[in-house]
Amino acid sequence: MNTGKLPKLIYPGPGAGYSYHNHSILSDGESTPEEMCRAAKKAGLKEFGLSDHYVIHPDPSLMPVDWSIDIHALDAYIARLLALKNELDDDGFTIRMGLEVDFFFENADEVLKGLEKYPLDYLIGSVHYAGTFPVDHSSAPWEVISDEEKHTICMEYWQKMKGAAQCGRFRFLGHLDLPKKFALLKDPSIYYTQAREVLDICAETGTGIELNTSGWYKPCAEQYPSFDILREAARRRVPVVINPDAHHQDHVDRGFAQAAQVVSESQAL
Fold first, then answer.
1. What is the per-residue burial (b if ≥16 Cβ within 10 Å, else e) of 204-221?
2. What letter does residue 240 receive in the DSSP assignment?
3. Among 41, 94, 105, 202, which residue carries the largest CB count within 10 Å?
4. What's the pLDDT tens digit per position in 136-146?
5. What residues pair up with 95 in beta bridges, in sequence order?
6. What span, in angstroms and rounded, lies between the C-alpha atoms of 184 and 42?
């Protein structure tokens, strides 16, 4: 059984057959950890990581976050995944134990320090809040604010993504340019300057990014991040891992063939 930590990603990326951004009913998924891992093995993946949401919002009034794993139940989470590793790991398949951690400047050091005692293989750095504004929970909050307010939220989002990259504690960053999800921004490309700044930091800290295929199935109808951002990542030799952000066992490799083509084209400089 492979119990070693997931190593730093190396450019151009781990290639086909690796999937590290996935969720179960322990956070906001629809399938059990057992269903997710068994489906991944059946799909022929080489490595599969479960990475349920881990959110400690610095505003106590927003805690607990109902779409996050129970932050007091990590021992049970690890035990459940270790049992699955014992059952399913073999020469051709490895389960990886991860978490998708929300980044907040106010408590990042404390949160990440608290996770060090757990035998996790990797952490994903993501941003789902701009202050108390929920970036991707639903379209409703976006529909009632002005373009100026949207801009302020996007700028805070990208500033927090820079912080997540700078801390150097995440194997990769989750779904860059997430605010475009509901197709309610006039022009998401105006934030490419901020995206390039994030990628510059990733190159310095050895942090990867992902091509998250779930965007193809959202109102934006585009992978996260955009092709132009992927090209900028390639120019900086920032590694890319293809992930489905699966919340259901039927989606553990959704869009992978198309994603591999997109990544290949973006890296053909």
1. eeebbbbbbbbbbebebe
2. E
3. 202
4. 999 999 999 99
5. 48
6. 37
Q: Give the pLDDT confidence of 160-197 residue by residue, as tens digits.
A: 999 999 999 999 999 999 999 999 999 999 999 999 99
Give residue for tokens 């190396």: 10
Fold of 18-264: TIM Barrel (3.20.20)
Mention every residue, 6+ apart, whose C-beta is less than 8 A from residue 71: 54, 55, 56, 64
Sign of CA dihedral 138, 140, 141, 142: positive
Mean pLDDT calculated for residue range 12-35: 96
Closest-CA residue to 55 (of 116, 126, 160):
126
Sketch the domain layout of the chain as residue ranges: 18-264
Gap between the Cα atoms of 205 and 57, Å rounded: 25
Nearby residues of 43 by Cβ (< 8 Å), 6 or more positions away:
252, 253
Q: Are 26 and 252 in contact (CB under 8 A)?
A: no
Query: What b-and-e string marks burial along 240-261, b requiring 16 or more CB atoms within 10 Å of the CB?
Result: bbbbbbbbbbebbbbbbeebbe
Q: Nearest-CA neighbor of 209 among 252, 164, 268?
A: 164
Cβ-contact 207, 171 below 8 angstroms: yes
Q: Which of 206, 207, 30, 19 is nearest to 96 (CA)?
A: 19
Q: Of 15, 6, 25, 16, give the one whose Cα is nearest residue 249.
A: 25
